[in-house]
């Protein structure tokens, strides 16, 4: 059987050519599907943004006659979604359900339905239809703050790195005693190639995610030791420039 263009029609006309002595003629033969049609898949959401640890349900509904039970959810790698995440909600319905969702479930999922149509004439016509749904899991982890050292001598090099695993990417700011030093995205590195007492202080990171109301913070103290061999006058000027009013032992270890 050939030239069947619309599976939703009840009756299809098939032209058969018969060779006669005086030439050719076409006879029309009716192949009746008795109102059978489909399948046509629709999902309740083609794109979903959801926060980690929330619950998700996406309906996969199929229109077909007769109803079909051959409905399968697939992951983007072609693997079938495990049964624990698929709920049979009756004929022509399979729902993707993920409770306490985690970031590893971010993916493109496809609901596919199959239906065999049996005409009164000709071969079985296998029909398939699919629709996809993209799931984007959002998350916002705590800040990880690292430094190569927290106690330094003058002229030492030091770095402070602030990172946060976040989707969408977080905006990170680094502060020293309340003053902004650097702003970047998802990774913030502040480097001091040659330290002085002016670099002593409290360094803090502040991370902001556009879909989360709360902010994340973390801080670390840096202490820069002065060099004992400084000339007395140099030392006096050094301490004055650094605005250190406490006894010298406060910054000397």
TrEMBL record:
Residues 39-136, 141-225 form the Ig-like domain. It is a single-pass type I membrane protein. The keyword Nuclease does not apply. The keyword Glycoprotein applies. One of its GO terms (biological process) is cell-cell adhesion. It is found in: Membrane. Coiled coil: none annotated. GO terms for cellular component: cell-cell junction; plasma membrane. Its main location: membrane. Keywords: Disulfide bond, Glycoprotein, Immunoglobulin domain, Membrane. One of its GO terms (molecular function) is cell adhesion molecule binding. Signal peptide: none annotated. Gene3D superfamilies: Immunoglobulins. Pfam families: Ig_2 (PF13895), Ig_3 (PF13927). This is Ig-like domain-containing protein. It comes from Lottia gigantea.
């Amino acid at each position: 059987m050939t030239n069947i263009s619309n599976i939703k029609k009840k009756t299809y006309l098939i032209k058969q050519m018969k060779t006669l002595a005086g030439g050719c003629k076409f006879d029309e033969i009716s192949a009746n599907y008795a109102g059978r049609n489909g399948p046509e898949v629709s999902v309740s959401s083609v794109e979903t943004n959801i926060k980690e640890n929330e619950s998700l349900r996406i309906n996969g509904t199929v229109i077909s006659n007769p109803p079909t039970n051959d409905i399968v959810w697939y992951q983007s790698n072609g693997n079938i979604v495990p049964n624990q995440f698929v709920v049979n909600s009756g004929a022509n319905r399979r729902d993707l359900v993920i409770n306490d969702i985690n970031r590893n479930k971010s993916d493109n999922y496809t609901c596919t339905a199959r239906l065999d149509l049996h005409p009164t004439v000709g071969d079985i016509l296998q029909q398939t239809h699919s629709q996809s749904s993209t799931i984007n899991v959002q998350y916002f982890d705590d800040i990880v703050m690292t430094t190569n050292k927290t106690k330094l001598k003058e002229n030492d090099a030091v770095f402070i790195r602030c990172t946060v695993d976040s989707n969408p990417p977080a905006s990170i700011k680094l502060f020293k005693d309340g003053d902004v030093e650097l702003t970047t995205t998802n990774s913030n590195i502040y480097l001091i190639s040659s330290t002085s007492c002016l670099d002593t202080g409290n360094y803090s990171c502040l991370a902001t995610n556009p879909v989360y109301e709360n902010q994340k913070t973390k801080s670390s103290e840096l202490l820069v030791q002065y060099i004992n061999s400084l000339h007395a006058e140099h030392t006096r000027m050094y301490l004055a420039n650094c605005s250190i009013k406490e006894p010298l032992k406060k910054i000397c270890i």
